Amino acid sequence: MSATGIVSIMNENPALQLVIDETSVQPLSNDDFDPKKHIDFVPPTKVHNMSDLKLPEGTGVSAFAVSEPFQLFTEEAVARMRAEIFSKAVLENCRYSSNLAQCQLRGFAAKYAPFVYDVWKNPETLAIISKIAGVELVTEMDFEIAHINISVKSEKQKAEELEASVDKKMTEDDEGIAGCPWEDDKPIVDWHTDSYPFVCVTMLSDCRGMIGGETALRTGDGGIVKVRGPERGHAVVLQGRYIEHQALRALGTTERITMVTSFRPKSHTVKDDTVLTTVRPISNLSELYYQFSEYRLEILEERIREKLKALRETERSGRKMNTKDLKAFLHEQEMFLAHMNKEMVDDALVTKGSIDDSHLFSGFAKRSKRKRIE
Ligand SMILES: [Fe+2]
């Protein structure tokens, strides 16, 4: 997208252009990310475990399910992140549209947003998220650092929506967790699981006066638990790969910008169920496949190195080969590679901007098909 890209955003959505203009005039410092200055962490008042949601033991990679919203960033950090997100380079080069969302910004952090990148790569940030999640985490891939969902309405639209909501039940909508985007005008995404094991959703807008915006989670006995949406500078962590969820539509705000960063377990000994279902059509496919292959092959490299060392030690110590154990290892790695190969759909078969509904029905929670919301 060239300079005309900015013009086209303005034509499509004057309210969004207003947000971009306001963000760009804020006087900001340009010092590096410093956790002492930019993180203001207050632990969540409560975290819900898988057992709280009545999900079977062993669901997911840790017992943790979802946190209540918690304070994570200072106002200065939020302003700095907003300024980078709404920079010309990001808007011109990293904007994606799909059948589910008109405007998302993706894959920009490593190239154009050093502050945002450092926020999510910093050991202190990772320690906070890992502690909440109950397992040591790293960012899923650079491409999935700070996926941005943008919903901006005019005051008139806001008022009309509020009025309409009085007469009818609030329509449910997706929350825009990476790869499961939302678009307020077209509620499409039903109950789903995410592509990535964990997400941290950070609110970058002022949500005072907002109605709705909670995340609804399906419990193991078919019930629903709701977690309220975060305020500006606050975040929610969710093990979204394993829990069916959807977000309830948010009304009463003109601007709702969320930043979604995805995580996976750091250890090569922990399973990695990452899929790319929801993200292939809204990604630079070459970058996505490279980063997915890189970390998956690194996991395999570690596993093989460890197994080889153990085999050599067995031989040197004169012990007998454990064929059963080795065959189990080989089978596990065959599955690991087959999974990877399946996720890397041939480039020619990926339609840009077109997300099918294969993510809507979880392979983990084998429940009957549910109707899409139209
Ligand atoms: Fe989601």
What can you tell me about this protein's structure?
- The structure is a single chain.
- This protein has 374 residues and is α+β, with helices and mostly antiparallel strands.
- It folds into two domains: 3-270, Jelly Rolls, CATH 2.60.120; 290-355.
- Helices cover 35% and strands 17% of the residues.
- It contains eleven helices and 16 strands.
- The strands form four sheets. Strands 3, 4, 5, 6, 7, 9, 13 and 16 form an eight-stranded antiparallel sheet that branches. It has a four-stranded antiparallel sheet with strand order 8-14-11-12, with no helix packed on it. A two-stranded antiparallel sheet has the order 1-2.
- Residues 1-5, 169-188 and 362-374 have low confidence and may be disordered.
- The structure holds fe (ii) ion.
What is the secondary structure topology, with strand pairs?
Layout: H1 3-12, H2 14-24, H3 35-38, E1 47-49, E2 64-67, E3 70-71, H4 75-85, H5 88-93, E4 95-96, E5 104-105, H6 109-112, H7 114-121, H8 123-133, E6 137-139, E7 147-152, H9 155-167, E8 172-173, E9 198-203, E10 211-212, E11 215-218, E12 224-227, E13 234-238, E14 245-248, E15 250-251, E16 255-265, H10 285-316, H11 323-343
Antiparallel strand pairs: 1-2, 3-13, 4-5, 5-7, 6-16, 7-16, 8-14, 9-13, 9-16, 10-15, 11-12, 11-14
Helix pairs in contact: 1-2, 10-11
Bound molecules: fe (ii) ion.
Fe (ii) ion is lined by residues 175, 177, 180, 192, 194, 240, 245.
